[in-house]
Automatic annotation (TrEMBL):
It comes from Streptomyces melanosporofaciens. Keywords: DNA-binding, Phosphoprotein, Transcription, Transcription regulation. PANTHER family: TRANSCRIPTIONAL REGULATORY PROTEIN NARL-RELATED, TWO-COMPONENT RESPONSE REGULATOR. One of its GO terms (biological process) is regulation of DNA-templated transcription. Residues 143-214 form the HTH luxR-type domain. Residues 2-122 form the Response regulatory domain. It comes from the Bacteria. Pfam families: GerE, Response_reg. GO terms for molecular function: DNA binding. InterPro entries: CheY-like_superfamily, NreC/VraR/RcsB-like_REC, Sig_transdc_resp-reg_C-effctor, Sig_transdc_resp-reg_receiver, Tscrpt_reg_LuxR_C, WalR-like, WH-like_DNA-bd_sf. The modification 4-aspartylphosphate is found at D52. This is DNA-binding response regulator, NarL/FixJ family, contains REC and HTH domains.
Amino acid sequence: MRVVIAEDNALLREGMVLLLNSAGHEVVAVASSGPEVLPALLEHRPDAAVLDVRMPPGFRDEGLRAALAARREIPGLPVLVLSQYVEETYATELLADGAGGLGYLLKDRVGRVEEFLDALERVVAGGTALDPEVVKELMTRRRDDPVDSLTPREREVLHLMAEGRDNTTIARTLVVSERAVSKHIGNVFAKLGLPPSDSGHRRVLAVLAYLNKGVGVGEAVDKR
């Protein structure tokens, strides 16, 4: 795949370039500041963009803003956003459009090569890749919502769904059958008032939209 990297830390940036090149991918451009990001994406129109949230000159949300702008200019552009810490507002804003091909990882995850590459591939395939810590933060930030009615096992399944895992992976992780996973997913959707769906990232994003924004079921699904 062709990738654009936007990261102001030179060591991390070059490390990702080497990592992706060694994995058989092509880094077509790199950016070290916010203003460089969108022009690079529009020029190269890559298969994926890996962007730091906070970049020069302001070190606020320049990378995120560039990602959102690029998604408007290039609908469906797969974007994997990196952050030093769990920043709930940024994760929520990134997911708000209800479209797939999005990921949000903590930078520590880059050092876990297989996890990083797997996340990038899932995003390019149109799925989601949310860091487990990000999912945990999003799922626990609200009180008195339907997620409280889930059993511990259903919470585990929802957590893995939100990370973008498919039924086979969930079954293997929890050491249960795929039939059991399907049953748990059905229960999750029923308790959250969401229609069951087998469309992978669409169902995950519907759940995330519900948890993050309180978006109605119809709104979350109609955006797909």
